[in-house]
TrEMBL record:
Residue ranges of the region described as Disordered: 415-468
Compositionally skewed regions (Low complexity) per UniProt: 457-468
Domain of life of the source: Bacteria
Organism: Paracoccus pacificus
InterPro entries on file: DUF6638 (IPR046578)
Pfam families linked: DUF6638 (PF20343)
UniProt protein name: DUF6638 family protein
C-alpha cells in the first residue's frame, strides 16, 4: 500500500492537523466521544475526523466507529467537506456528511472558529443482526454539538425566549427572566447571532453496505432489490427482490427492467472507442499477471505481444469487447452479446438517476478487471484486491491511476459515467404487472415476468441479443 500512499491514491486529500489549538480541540472532542486522547502533535483527518495515525497510536482503527453503535464524527473545519471518508460502512455516508457541512456551512464556520463540532451519524437501527435489518435503514440523521454544548445551550436559550414572548404573563415572570439572564451568560444574544443547524435528516433509498459480505440496496426504482456479494447471506425480505451477484442473468434482467444501465458503445457524449480499448488493456494486464507472462511496461504494444503468447488462453472477455470496438469504429452488424458473455458487464454503465453511483459500484464489482472503474467506484474492494496482486500489476495500476485519473478526477468521471445524476425519483410505473412496462436501455422488457422463485417466461432482449 506504500506505493498508493506515495502517489496520493490512498489517504489522499486528508486534512492536516498540526496546530496546537486544533490538536487541543480534537483531544477534547475525542475524550468526550471515546474517553481517550492522543499524544500526537500532528496527524491527518478525513471527512468525519477519523485519523489513520491516531487509530494506529490508540491501537484501534475503528475508534470512531464502535461496533454496535452509530458512527461518530469530529469537525475541526468546514474544509473537511473535500476530504475522503475512510472505511464507510454505508456508501451514502460521505455524500450525506458532505451535504450536511455544505448546507450548514455558515453555522459550522462560526462554531468551529472556537470549538470542535462532534456528534453521531444515526441510522435509527440499533443492531444489524441479519441482512433483513438493512431494509430498516431508510434515512440518516446527523446529531451534532460542540464540546462546550453551544448548540444545545443556544436551543435552550431560544426556547426560553419563545416562552417569554408567547406565554401569558411572560413579561412579568421573574423566574423566567432570571433563567434567561443566566443562560445568556453562556450563549450570548442568540437573536442577533443564532446558533442553529438546519437540515440534519437525509433519506437514503439506495446504498451499499459493507455488512454481510456486501449488500447493494436499491429502492428508488419500480422493482426494489437487494443484491448480495456473498450468496451464503442471501435473504428474502418482503417487498424486495433478493439476488446474488453471481447470478449474472438475474442481475442483468433486473437492470434492464428498471432502466438502470445502458451500453457504453451507444451512450451519449462518450468516446466509446477509447473506453473499450482501455478495458481491453485492463483485461490483458489481469490475464498476463495470472499466467505469469511479461507485460513489459504495460504499453498497448507490449500488451498485444502478451496477448499473442496467450494463444487459446486469451480471456473470453476480449472477443466481446473487440467486437464492440469494431462496431464503434467501422459499423456493421451489432455484436450479439448477452449477460452470459463475460464481456457483458464490462460493456455497460449506469444510466443517470438517483441510483447511478450505487449501480456503477455494483457494475465495478461485476467486472473487477477494469481497475480504473474499481478504484473510482468501489475503493474498499479495490484496496482488498490490490493487496493480492503481483508487483508488476501493482506498479502498472498505481502508475496508470496517478497519470490518468489524479490529473483530472472530475473530467475522467464525466467521460466515463456521464454528468451528475438527476436526483428526482423515476416515475413509479409498474414493471411486472399492469400498466406499461418499464422501458430499459434497450427497449421494453415486458416479456420478463417474476415469481417468488425468480425469473420465468421468455428472457428479455438484452443490448446484444437474448439474455440467456
Amino acid at each position: 500500500m506504500k506505493r498508493l500512499i506515495e502517489k496520493g491514491l490512498m489517504f489522499g486529500n486528508l486534512v492536516l492537523v498540526d496546530s496546537p489549538a486544533w490538536v487541543a480541540r480534537y483531544n477534547r472532542a475525542l475524550e468526550k466521544l471515546t474517553g481517550k486522547t492522543t499524544d500526537l502533535t500532528e496527524f491527518h483527518i478525513d471527512l468525519a475526523g477519523h485519523s489513520p495515525e491516531v487509530g494506529d497510536a490508540l491501537g484501534d482503527l475503528d475508534y470512531l466507529s464502535p461496533k454496535g453503535a452509530n458512527r461518530q464524527f469530529i469537525l475541526l473545519t468546514t474544509e473537511q467537506k473535500t476530504a475522503p471518508l475512510l472505511n464507510p460502512s454505508i456508501s451514502a455516508l460521505r455524500d450525506i456528511l458532505r451535504r450536511f457541512i455544505v448546507e450548514n456551512e455558515s453555522q459550522l464556520l462560526s462554531l468551529t472558529a472556537r470549538d470542535a463540532v462532534l456528534g453521531e451519524i444515526e441510522d435509527h437501527v440499533w443492531e444489524l443482526a441479519t441482512p433483513a435489518d438493512l431494509a430498516a435503514v431508510t434515512q440518516i440523521k446527523i446529531i451534532a454539538d460542540t464540546t462546550g454544548r453551544h448548540i444545545a445551550e443556544a436551543d435552550r436559550m431560544a426556547a426560553l425566549i419563545e416562552r417569554f414572548r408567547t406565554e401569558p404573563g411572560g413579561w412579568y415572570d421573574d423566574v423566567l427572566i432570571a433563567q434567561m439572564i443566566t443562560q445568556a451568560k453562556s450563549t450570548g444574544d442568540v437573536t442577533r447571532n443564532p446558533v442553529h443547524l438546519g437540515r440534519v435528516e437525509f433519506p437514503i433509498p439506495d446504498f451499499h453496505a459493507e455488512a454481510f459480505g456486501g449488500v447493494y440496496m436499491i429502492r428508488s426504482v419500480p422493482e426494489p432489490a437487494m443484491i448480495f456479494s456473498d450468496k451464503t447471506q442471501l435473504t428474502n425480505v418482503p417487498g424486495l427482490l433478493s439476488i446474488a451477484i453471481e447470478d449474472r442473468n438475474l442481475v442483468a434482467g433486473w437492470l434492464a427492467r428498471n432502466g438502470l444501465a445502458e451500453p457504453i458503445a451507444t451512450a451519449h457524449g462518450t468516446d466509446a472507442a477509447a473506453i473499450l480499448r482501455q478495458k481491453i488493456d485492463f483485461v490483458l494486464v489481469d490475464a498476463a499477471n495470472r499466467m505469469g507472462l511479461d507485460q513489459g511496461d504495460g504499453s498497448r504494444s507490449d500488451l498485444r505481444r502478451a496477448a499473442a503468447r496467450m494463444g487459446e488462453r486469451l480471456p473470453p472477455e476480449i472477443a466481446g469487447l473487440a467486437a464492440l470496438l469494431r462496431w464503434v469504429e467501422t459499423g456493421g452488424d451489432w455484436p450479439v452479446i448477452d449477460s452470459s458473455n463475460p464481456a457483458y458487464f464490462h460493456a455497460i454503465r449506469a444510466t443517470a438517476g438517483p441510483a447511478r453511483d450505487v449501480i456503477n459500484m455494483l457494475l465495478a464489482e461485476m467486472a473487477p478487471q477494469d481497475v480504473r472503474n474499481l478504484y473510482i467506484l468501489n475503493k474498499p474492494l479495490f484496496y482488498r484486491l490490490y493487496a493480492t496482486w503481483p508487483e508488476p500489476k501493482k506498479e502498472y495500476v498505481a502508475n496508470l491511476l496517478s497519470r490518468e485519473y489524479q490529473m483530472d478526477k472530475q473530467g475522467t468521471r464525466a467521460a466515463l459515467f456521464g454528468g451528475e445524476p438527476d436526483m428526482r425519483p423515476p416515475d413509479p410505473s409498474p414493471s411486472t404487472s399492469g400498466g406499461n412496462a418499464v422501458t430499459g436501455p434497450w427497449g421494453s422488457a415486458s416479456s420478463m415476468r417474476l415469481n417468488e422463485a425468480g425469473l420465468e417466461g421468455p428472457a428479455p432482449a438484452g443490448p446484444w441479443g437474448r439474455a440467456g
